[in-house]
Amino acid sequence: MTDTEQRTDPPVSLDTAKPGVVSRIWEWLARYRVQVLGIVIGGVLWEIAGRAGISPALPPISAVLAAGGELWSSERFLDAAYTTATSILIALPPSLLVGVALGLLMGLFRPVEWIVRPYVNASLSLPLVAIIPIILLIFGLSQTTIVVVIILYVLPVVMVNTFAGVRSTDHDLVEMATSFNAGRWLTIRRIVIPSARGLTLAGIRIGVGRSISGGIVAEQVVGVLGVGGLVQRLGGAFAVEALYAVILFIGAVGVASLALINRVEQRYQIKEV
Amino acid sequence: MIQVTSVSKVFTRSGKSFEALRDVSFDVGTGRFVSLIGPSGCGKTTLLKMMAGLIKPTRGSISIGGEEVTGSGPDRALVFQNFVLLPWADVLTNTAFGLEARGVPKKTREQMARDQLERVGLGGFERNYPHELSGGMQQRVGIARALAVDPDTLLMDEPFGSLDAITRNVMQHDLLRLWQETATKTTVFVTHSMEEAALLSDRVVIMDTRPGRVAQLVDVPFPRPRDEGLSDSRDYLEFTGELSHQLEQMQRIDMARSADEDRDRGDDD
What ipTM did this prediction achieve? Predict the structure, then answer.
């Protein structure tokens, strides 16, 4: 895959100042033709495998899309998606803000690192399903439980990444700042934070992904709420096509949210190294 | 005046100690340009960083203008071998960094930085980023950043060491001109090149290794103001030839000794 191919600007049409919806879709397809091709290939392979009847657990994609068409517009699905989305949107801002802040503090102050790090490392390897029952005991069968689980699941990855970013600061730059008598705050603002930026953003990206998977797993364990609850019920009813439709939807949301982050990132681009 | 008085430095790392400097003493007169030269490992950069207040001597002391150096200070500015510019900040912000550290308001410090950039020949590059500049231009930013804080003492750590030969020559001549225009700044300049030291300095401190120590103090006999024509003169070639030869000898002895030590270590195993 060549980069130049994808970066070629779409042809400028001289006769129409604003291109219509159809021509914009065509332009988009032309620009991302390799990606689109990848999706098409995946879909075709899925269809072939499904029709070959390898397993009842693998229906053809056409059947999945048919089930999806019905499901995605149904009230129970939209309700579930809304519940899950609100849990994630409530949980994400505090997770990311507190995660970045604690990561910075860990990176800047050794004692903070010594105190916090064992907990962070432990929580990184803790399976999510192990902590859910405890949260459930405290907050009950409510959205609060889901929100708390997401926060606990997202926080550590954001923290360790930010921390690693702070520690990746080039020692020569810090020495330079010291030689010019720069104060602590200036050193942090001009040197430490820009140094930590790349890894922090990577942590945020992983964190957003985790908020979706963590939220759905929590809902599944709790069993009555949101998309996770729906997955649990569909699985129990052996509604395989509908289950795949939900999975496709979750995947699409994941792709879209990461694309959104990339967009935001480019928008506020600080010059890269 | 910078006074270096019986300075020793021992580094200890995981139980092993390494004597970087032993009993080093010399003076640098106010407004003079002094070069520290010697084979690698002679402690010249360590000594420079001590003057900058970034490293503390194990024994002895360094004082500048009668006051003992205990840390970095606004009277000194450092120019680094590998430039050490902020890669995410433009040339203007980089040049103004030292002023920003002193709390100079943005407008004032940017104007001062612009003036310095003009002096080092980088007018018009204010909004470029370091990676868009050649090594020589990056070091011009490094020099402008140091000059912008108007230090009494300028400390330069092999500033042209990582540049190609031609750029290096140009930079040497430009620094010579720049320094003679400013004239009053006491400068300590670490280098590997005797030609560079002889062209720029009033005095050369030749150092030797294992442990790092002063081998010889040599006054450079060429009158100021100098220009690049000096490097073609017969006197200059003789002077640098003799001292370069001496340096080479030191380097060879050092290599032979380290080979011996390696062999000794081999016998122990």
Answer: 0.86
